[in-house]
Amino acid sequence: MSRRMLIAGNWKMNGDAAQVDAFARDVTQGSDSLSADLLVCVPFVYIERMKQGLAGSRVALGAQNLAAEVDAGAFTGEVNGAMLADTGCSHVIVGHSERRAIYGETDAVVAAKADACVAANLKPIVCVGETLEQREADETEAVLGAQIAALFEQCDAATLAQVTIAYEPIWAIGTGRSATPEQAQGVHAFLRGQIADRDATLAQSVQLLYGGSVKPDNAAALFAGADVDGALVGGASLKADSFLDIAHAAG
Ligand code: PEP
User: Fold this and answer.
1) pLDDT tier for residue 74 given thresholds of 50, 70 and 90
2) Exposed, middle or buried, 13 (CB in 10 Å: 0-12/13-18/19+)?
3) How many domains does the chain have?
4) Catalytic site includes residue 130
5) CATH number of the domain that 180 lies in?
6) Measuring from atom 1 of ligand 1, which residue has the nearest CA?
């Protein structure tokens, strides 16, 4: 099955109004000839501004987190899926390693947030990945297998049908040290196999993104992997030119 390529930007807690405006203007001008799908996930407060800037472009909008609670209510500081959908988002990054490590998000919380996305008609991009210590101890497959198992055990079937998985080795995020194309393809094939063991049809259609120091100069080699369906891009998504160069490498 041919799957679409998705290039998703994760701005993390970066950017300001001027940067949003410049990015939106330049990406809108530069993305017409691309065949890959583009998505940019900005801080909550800039979603509306990015939406205005991207009006008429083919770039979709996403958020980087959402509340696990579906219904509105007394959850000070939280933003639920319905609000994000209302604001024009189509996707939400869920379970990024920074949220797991810094904010203590467990597999159960990640699954609840993925379900909360789908309850609001949003597509969850669920991040999985191993630490350097785990890779060096030959635990990569055990760690990723457990993360996939948790997702399948804890999420609704309706959620699993909508999920995109981002493989983000933690040692490659923000370090400038990407996985090699062989490492990325090897892990993606493993992940697709884990999904196929549970649902062969879903395994063929599910998009598997690679994330971790993707840059214009390594993107094409990473995308050559048969099971690599795009990228989740942090640092290189903050500027339109590098984001577009990565998107061009995807076709
Ligand atoms: C990320 O934030 O998900 C990420 C992959 O960051 P970077 O591309 O900067 O490594």
Assistant:
1) very high
2) exposed
3) 1
4) no
5) 3.20.20.70
6) 234
Contacts of 172 (CB under 8 A, 6+ apart): 178, 179, 211, 212, 213
Give the range of the structural domain holding residue 223, as residue numbers without chain letter: 6-249
Q: What is the pLDDT of residues 156-210, one digit of tens each?
A: 999 999 999 999 999 999 999 999 999 999 999 999 999 999 999 999 999 999 9
What's the 135 CA to ligand 1 centre distance in angstroms? 18
Ligand 1 atom 7: residue of nearest CA:
234
- Beta strand segments in 89-207, E: 91-94, 123-128, 164-167
Instruction: Choose one of 164, 218, 232, 237 to mutate for the ligand 1 pocket test, by most ligand atoms within 8 angstroms of C-beta.
Output: 232
Q: Which residues line ligand 1 (CB under 6 A)?
A: 10, 12, 168, 173-174, 211-214, 232-236
Report residue 15's pLDDT band, with 50, 70 and 90 as the boundaries. very high
